[in-house]
Amino acid sequence: MNHWETFLEPYKQAVDELKIKLKGMRTQFELHNSHSPIEFVTGRVKPIASILDKASEKGVLLENLATEIQDIAGLRMMCQFVDDIEFVVELLRRRKDFKIIEEKDYISHKKQSGYRSYHVVVEYPVQTINGEKRILAEIQIRTLAMNFWATIEHSLNYKYRGQFPEEIQNRLQRAAEAAFRLDEEMSEIREEIQEAQAFFSEKKEDVIKE
Ligand code: 0O2
Q1: Which domains, from first to last, does the chain contain?
Q2: Alpha helix ranges (H) inside 32-143
Q3: Strand pairing report for 40-45 and 118-128
Q4: pTM of the shown model
Q5: How far is the CA of 73 from the CAs of 2, 69, 94, in angstroms?
Q6: N or C end of the chain: smaller count of CB under 10 Å?
Q7: Is the CB of 171 within 6 Å of ligand 1?
Q8: In 3-state terms, what secondary structure has residue 113?
């Protein structure tokens, strides 16, 4: 095993374990036939090149990566409605299997770019053959609309390396506004959407029973 593989192994384990645990939350809501505030969960270990880019941008020394780069292990939880986000964060706060060390609310305080999301940085204990290793992981909680915008902006950012042409910049700002309004509109008709979804899942169960 080379140095990077050894360094990243506990992060990989943490992402795998957390993905199962966070997806388990969704399954529990489904079993109780209640609206799941969690639509889907994804996770990844940051690629080495991105770790190095971020370290050099922030002036972080290689020996300080584990403490200074908080999102080497990254999880995302997508919700249908903005109000679901606070509920999910509260569920995370109540858990006993990790410790929240920081929360960043980019929903009440959106970033200059237009980015909106709620970030929770946790300290997660990974059990290794050499004992327990506590590592940092970042859980991003966002709506489907916020995720759509962030995914597109992220790929454009990769293409333009942060130096967007003015027209693209303006369009991204307008798209961020549109995503914000979409979330607002969906919240307004939340009750109707949930009734329709409950009706649909009952119908599906009837078909399975038949
Ligand atoms: P990737 O490829 O997703 O891993 P800080 O030191 O706290 O000010 P830091 O460490 O960048 O800053 O933390 P922050 O602000 O919580 O952002 C970490 C991650 O949030 C980013 O990781 C992105 O995933 C996401 N993010 C933050 N701002 C934006 C944005 O303007 N647009 C998009 N699309 N995503 C954003 P990375 O390493 O940048 O990228």
Answers
A1: 3-209 (3.30.460.10)
A2: 48-58, 65-68, 82-94
A3: unpaired
A4: 0.92
A5: 19, 9, 21
A6: C
A7: no
A8: coil
Q: Is the CB of 154 under 6 A from ligand 1?
A: yes
* Range 13-18 contact pairs with CB under 8 angstroms and sequence separation of 24 or more: 13/126, 13/128, 14/73, 14/124, 14/126, 14/135, 14/137, 15/43, 15/44, 15/45, 15/73, 15/74, 15/75, 15/137, 16/43, 17/124, 17/126, 18/43, 18/73, 18/75, 18/98, 18/124, 18/137, 18/139
Judge if the beta carbon of residue 104 lies within 6 A of ligand 1: yes
74 C-alpha vs ligand 1 centroid, how far in Å? 11
**What average pLDDT values come out for the chain (210 residues) when binned by 10 residues?**
91 98 95 88 97 96 96 98 97 98 97 96 96 97 98 91 89 96 94 80 67
Query: How much distance in Å is there from the Cα of 20 to the middle of ligand 1?
Result: 23
ipTM score of complex: 0.92
Distance 195 CA to ligand 1 centre (A): 35
Q: Is 138 annotated as catalytic? A: yes
Beta strand extents in 2-89 (DSSP E only)? 40-45, 73-79
